[in-house]
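Reviewer 2 asked us to include a model.

Predict the structure of this chain.
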Amino acid sequence: MPSAIDNREHTLYILSEFHPEAVKHAQSLFNCVLHTDPRILRWREEATAVLVKDYPIHEADLDAAPQLQAIGKQGVGVDQIDTAACAQRGIKVYNTPGVNASAVAEMVMALTLNVARDISGLWYRQLALGESIRKETCNGLLLTGRTIGIIGMGHIGRQVARMFQGAFDTRTIAYDPFVPEGAWADFDHERVQDLDDLLSKADVVSVHVPLTPQTISMIGHSQMQKMKRTGILVNASRGGIVDEADLQRALDEKLIWGCGFDCHVQEPPTLAKYGDLWSHEHYVGTPHVAAATDETQIATTNAAIDLVYQHMVEASRRAHIEAKLTA
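Predicted model (structure tokens):
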């Protein structure tokens, strides 16, 4: 545990709102400037370390932050941070891959079940309006024994594959051109080298890649044409990896059974932007809340805080040693 002296040595500018328990943890390690404190406006001029969730940090921010050494990012995605500019300036970015894997995997399963069995779709809307529904008019998809295709072989993709295999005895197909051969060696799966191969074989396609120039519109109309007409597409990663206009077109044309999305290009999503997409019978959307459980919010934030703290302590030790050597 850090000493009382260490606790007062470093200051952390907390630029986003976080769970109160995570804030308490940060305050046990740092002097903290909260996002509600007027001093937060001077983070660029003063901060050596910051903590963010959805706060964007661009190159212009970094140019105005000459003292910045470390950025803690809750969760996996760092697409709102100019990581290339950080690397050029020697600023470390600490995210928390893997910590939220179970929560996101559970959301993927929930979205898939919802789409497959139309839990919150047309039937629910009819019931809410007081209409009666005859069982023989209802239809859904069985998941047991099906094939799930995982795009992105990271922590979350692996957890999704394991969860579906355990719950539904599914077969797993995986695609990831950036992960070395031998990944998931201890887990029963088929790895394919071509995305189209996965799309044509899978009953459920689940997206788990970061948003990069290479993955924008990775799945468009031509890719959805290759999916099964009973296929379900799930994206709990980032909006924009699946082309939204093409997705709506695919649903209009009934190229796939349906889809469950926890992310949109525009966030927070609005009815004005997405009303037509949301009106589809087998579309289920949530506002990027896959990791929105108390346990996950605390764990992911605390992990980022700890990484930044370790960085600052090590930086101080190195500076102290260098000062002694040059004295």
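The longest helix spans residues 294-326. The first strand starts at residue 11 and ends at 14. We have added this to the supplementary material.
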